[in-house]
Specification:
Largest sheet: 4 strands, antiparallel
Distance between the termini: 23 Å
Order of helices and strands: EEEHHHEH
Strand order of the largest sheet: 1-2-3-4
Shape: globular
Amino acid sequence: MPLRRPPNRVPARWLTRPPFIDHAEWTQLNQLPSLRVYPTRSGRDAARRRGSSTPAADEAWAEVLALAPDARTPGMRQQFQCHWELAEVVQPDKVSWNLEPWRPVVDDATMVGSGCNPGGGREPF
């Protein structure tokens, strides 16, 4: 069952407005857990903006954690950041950004080089 986001208040100075995440849903793929994160139109637009890494990305990650508190594991924030910075540019409007807690924690170059999916896996971004 998808988890719905709680209402949020953020500074009016942002050109795109929260909520940035519509919902998140845990699934099992090949018997491994995967969190599917579904950005809103505003979230996708914010992610496409150069320099949007902070504070919009921080707000979006907070929304993910409000929806799926068990996503707070090593490497998940880094995968989310990679999707935020690259996925909407490389693969616009991908249905969901998929984050997996079983993926290894790696340096930024490895994360980008793996298409946000370090340790092998399904799909880039």
